[in-house]
Amino acid sequence: QELVPNGTKVDMVTMLEKAVSYVKFLQLQVKVLATDEFWPAQGGTAPEISQVKEALDAILSSQREQLD
């Protein structure tokens, strides 16, 4: 709690829940960015940033629905 800003104002359970949620979010980002769909084959062209953002938003929203 000492390492987290305002950590003394939040109970330990809430802080751990938020930490777990953030780690899951980071794992999801790694999973998404590791997929071949986002990276061009040799000689191919990279996807538009808007395509990547749309895909990330869709994955994140579906992930949020699963958590609720």
Automatic annotation (TrEMBL):
SUPFAM superfamilies: HLH, helix-loop-helix DNA-binding domain (SSF47459). The keyword Transcription applies. The keyword Transcription regulation applies. GO terms for molecular function: DNA-binding transcription factor activity; protein dimerization activity. InterPro entries: bHLH_dom, HLH_DNA-bd_sf, IND-like. PROSITE patterns: BHLH (PS50888). GO terms for cellular component: nucleus. Residues 1-26 form the BHLH domain. Keywords: Nucleus, Transcription, Transcription regulation. It is found in: Nucleus. Belongs to the bHLH protein family. This is BHLH domain-containing protein. It comes from Aegilops tauschii subsp. strangulata.
